[in-house]
Write a structure and sequence with these properties.
Length: 260
């Protein structure tokens, strides 16, 4: 029996695989299920794991397939005797997973995001009625290899999706806007890109030190200065309201997808 089975060798499955191995997990303890032969070869050569086309018994199984195939794959994993499941598929509820597995198998649902691909992910997890604290800790150990993990109730997973699941795209859009504005004011696109990207990285690093965003913003904002002038324009153009509306819309859409 495999210690860990990862069903799906796409970007997120591979991100978790790579993170686990970087954090000391023995590659021989992991088996990946991947239907595409070229991808199987790539995963085996890159990570030194065994890659197969068939679902096998496992102490724990990660469901990293597309959402529409998760119920079928979850049922197959349960039938093969997996001891617990971690699903990272967006919109697939615990009720759906319980229906597929019989409701007695410990199941943890997670909402990760794409920065997990570079080890800087943000994920939230919740468990079904059969999942205990040990099962949640197991899921945290896996997702913690590629970023930060928080525990929440399932009713809040859609809000997590709206904030951190979709959030990277909001930041990418901000970067695009900053770069375009830099070009508009006379910078070359190369220079504007380098400055905008490093500014976002530096600001995020400062935030990671734990000080409130409002304090950090105040530090940069001298009375009557350039930053104050820029912030005034952002407030007048409804930046806060735009972000609130975006996160609310993404949350609502996540709820709609969950119902279908």
């Amino acid at each position: 029996m495999a210690e860990l089975l990862i069903i799906g060798g796409g970007k997120m499955g591979a991100a978790l695989l790579g993170g686990l191995i970087r954090h000391g997990r023995d590659a021989e303890s992991i088996v990946v299920v991947e239907p595409l032969e070229p991808r199987r070869k790539e995963l085996a050569e890159t990570y030194g794991v065994r890659v197969t086309t068939e679902i096998e018994p496992a102490s724990g199984t990660i469901l990293a397939t597309k959402p529409d195939s998760v119920p079928t794959v979850a049922r197959q994993a349960a039938e093969k005797g997996t001891e617990r499941l971690l699903s990272i598929a967006a919109g697939v509820t615990l009720a759906t997973l319980d229906d597929a597995t019989g409701g007695l198998l410990p199941v943890v649902r997670a909402m990760p995001n794409t920065p997990a691909l570079v080890g800087q992910g943000a994920a939230a997890i919740c468990g079904n009625g059969a999942a205990n604290l040990e099962d949640l800790a197991w899921a945290e150990g896996i997702l913690g290899a590629v970023g930060t993990v928080v525990r929440t109730d399932e009713k809040l997973i859609d809000a997590v999706t709206g904030l951190s699941g979709s959030g990277p795209a909001y930041i990418f859009l901000v970067a695009e806007a900053m770069i375009d504005a830099g070009v508009l004011t006379g910078l070359s696109r190369v220079v504007a890109t380098e400055l905008a990207v490093q500014t976002i990285l530096g600001a995020a690093t400062l935030l990671c030190e734990g000080r409130p965003p409002a304090e950090l913003r105040a530090d940069v904002t001298s009375p009557g200065g350039t930053t104050a002038a820029g912030l005034r324009e952002l407030e007048q153009h409804g930046l806060r309201a735009a972000f609130a509306a975006a996160i609310e819309a993404a949350t609502t859409r996540s709820q709609e997808l969950g119902r279908t």
